[in-house]
Amino acid sequence: MISHEPAGYRCPFCVLIAGGATDISGPDDVVARTDVAVAFIAPSWKPHNPGSVLVVSAVHVENLYTLPTVVGHGVHDLVQQVAVAIRRSYGCAGISTRQHNEPAGDQSVWHYHVHVSPRFDGDDLYRSLQSSTHPTREERTRFADLLRDQLRRASHQPAVASGDGPGRDGG
Fold first, then answer.
1. What percent of the chain has pLDDT over 70?
2. Where residue 161 falls among pLDDT bands split at 50, 70, 90?
3. Residue 28: which CATH number?
4. Number of structural domains the chain divides into
5. CA distance from start to end of the chain
6. How far is it, in rounded angstroms, from Cα 6 to Cα 63?
7. Alpha-carbon torsion angle 148, 158, 74, 110, nearest 10
8. Domain around 39
């Protein structure tokens, strides 16, 4: 097994999954939960991609290499639901997903997770990967409320349509 998780590691995602809070996120950030996956508003965003979401395995698995198949399928089912909800409610032009493994792959939290980011024309997401903003609790709550509402209504809507959400600058 390939592992970079340090001894005694306190996983921030496991804290959140268990209903706890960290310095930068808490239970109010959770927007969806299944038996195998949890989605929450990311504690940091790229400058022009507000409201990004992390979808994580509900059990602690460090990386893709040891991810049980049923968990991987469940995580990606929730990734798809979150992507559709973002597309419908944020007013964005598209979605990007990313998943990283090991330090050389830019993994920085030792718990399997997928980034789901709203995309806007000319947002320069991949040019701004080294810079992040840390939204306030109020900013995260605004996006969490939008997504929770959209996910509740999701089973009653047809194919993806762009919404009139907050847009590129979060406002």
1. 88
2. very low
3. 3.30.428.10
4. 1
5. 44
6. 14
7. -50
8. 12-151
Q: Which residue has the tokens 């406002």?
A: 171
Contact 150, 78 (CB under 8 A): no
Alpha helices in 18-123 (DSSP H): 69-89
Average pLDDT over every residue of 54-62: 98
Pairing of strands 37-41, 113-119: unpaired
Q: Are 80 and 159 in contact (CB under 8 A)?
A: no
Give the model's pLDDT for residue 128.
67
Question: Does 6 map to a domain?
Answer: no
Helix (H, G, I), strand (E, B) or coil at 117: strand
Q: Does 157 fall in a domain? A: no
Asked if the structure places residue 29 within a domain, the reply is: yes
166 assigned to some structural domain: no
Strands 37-41 and 30-33: antiparallel
Parallel, antiparallel, or unpaired for β 53-57 and 37-41? antiparallel
